Amino acid sequence: MPTEPPTEFRLPEPADDQASARRTWDRRALRLGLGMTLTFVIALAYDWTLAYLAPIFTAPLLQAPRAPTPRAAVGILLVTFLIMALCLVAGGVSQAYPALFLIALFPALFWTFRSGLRGGSSLVMILLLVGLMLVPMVANTTVEITRDVAGSFVGNIGISLAVTLLLFALIPPLPTEPAPAPKPVLPAAEVTRRAWILTAITGSYAVAYFSFGWTNVHTPIYIAIYAFSANLARGLTVTKGILAANVAAGLLTLVMYQLTVMAPHFPFVATMTLAVGLVLARMITSDAPWAPLAGFALSVVMILYGESIIPFSDAGGANFADRLGEIGMAAIYAIAALCVLAAYFPQKQAGFGILPDPSGQHPR
C-alpha cells in the first residue's frame, strides 16, 4: 500500500469494498424479508394444513447465492413428494408396529444427520427430519389428517419455490457479489461421532414419545433442528446465544401477538410482519458473528406468530402458549443433552492434539 494519498479523487479501496458488501447485504436482506413476508401472507390468506411452516422453508431458498433453476425447482418438488410418500408408509408402520418403526428410525436418523454434517442440502435434511419424525407421530395420534400433513409439506415447498423464483427475478444478485464461502469439511470420524450423538438425542425422545403416548408432535422436530445447529456451533458461548435468541424471539412474538389482538386487521398484520422480517433479515445477512442467531429468532417468530394467528381465532392465545412451551423445552433438552453426550464422548485426539474444528472455534 502506498503511503502517499492518491492523486485522483476517489474513495480508497477498502471503503469501496465495504460499500459493495453493504449493498449486497441490503439486497439479500430485502429479498429475504419480502420473500418470507409474502409467504406468510399467502399462508395467512389461504390457511392450509401447517401453512404457518411455509416461511421456514422459504428462508434457506432465499439465502442461497442464486435462484434454483426451473429444473432444480422441479427436482426439489419431486424429492419432497417422494420423501412424504415414503414417510406415509413409515407412518403406517409406526401405527401398526411401533417397535419395528423405532428400530428402523435410529439408522434412518443417523444417515440423515450424517448427510447434513457432510455438507448435504439443509432443506432436504429438514424435510427428512420432518418426514421421519412428524408424519409417523401424527399417524400415531390422529390417523385422519396424516395425508393432509404430508401433502401440506409438498404445498409448502411449492409455495416457497414460487416465491423464491419471484423474489430472485425482482431483486437479482449483483454481478459483483462474492461467491459463497465453501462449507467446512469435518473428518470422517468426527462426522460419525456427531451423527451418533444427534441420533441418540432425537431418537431417545421419539422412544419416550411412543412409550408414554405423548401428543406434542412438533417437539421432536424442534429438538432435532436445535441439536443439529448447536452441534455445528461447537461453543458454549454460541449455545447460550441460541437460548438467548429463543427467549428474545418469544418476547418479540408476544408483543406482536398482543398488537394483533388490539388491531386484528390483515393489512396491519402484513405490515408488522414485513417490518420485523426486514429487521431480522438484515441481521441475518450481515457478517456479524451473531447473524446465525438472528436466523434462529426469525424461525421462532414465524412459527409462534404464525400458529397463533393462522387462522384468526379465539384459540390463538392457547396455541401461542403451547408452541412457546414446546420450543423452549426442545431447546433446553437438545442443548443440555448435547453438552452431556459431548462430555462423555469427546473428540478423538490426533497425534498430540484434538482434531481441528472446521468451524474455526476452539472445542469446549
TrEMBL record:
<feature type="transmembrane region" description="Helical">
    <location>
        <begin position="96"/>
        <end position="113"/>
    </location>
</feature>
<keyword id="KW-0812">Transmembrane</keyword>
<feature type="transmembrane region" description="Helical">
    <location>
        <begin position="242"/>
        <end position="259"/>
    </location>
</feature>
<feature type="transmembrane region" description="Helical">
    <location>
        <begin position="32"/>
        <end position="52"/>
    </location>
</feature>
<feature type="transmembrane region" description="Helical">
    <location>
        <begin position="324"/>
        <end position="345"/>
    </location>
</feature>
<feature type="transmembrane region" description="Helical">
    <location>
        <begin position="119"/>
        <end position="139"/>
    </location>
</feature>
<feature type="transmembrane region" description="Helical">
    <location>
        <begin position="266"/>
        <end position="284"/>
    </location>
</feature>
<keyword id="KW-1133">Transmembrane helix</keyword>
<keyword id="KW-0472">Membrane</keyword>
<dbReference type="Pfam" id="PF11168">
    <property type="entry name" value="DUF2955"/>
</dbReference>
<feature type="transmembrane region" description="Helical">
    <location>
        <begin position="290"/>
        <end position="312"/>
    </location>
</feature>
<feature type="region of interest" description="Disordered">
    <location>
        <begin position="1"/>
        <end position="20"/>
    </location>
</feature>
<feature type="transmembrane region" description="Helical">
    <location>
        <begin position="194"/>
        <end position="212"/>
    </location>
</feature>
<feature type="transmembrane region" description="Helical">
    <location>
        <begin position="151"/>
        <end position="174"/>
    </location>
</feature>
<feature type="transmembrane region" description="Helical">
    <location>
        <begin position="72"/>
        <end position="89"/>
    </location>
</feature>
<protein>
    <submittedName>
        <fullName>Putative membrane protein</fullName>
    </submittedName>
</protein>
<dbReference type="InterPro" id="IPR022604">
    <property type="entry name" value="DUF2955"/>
</dbReference>
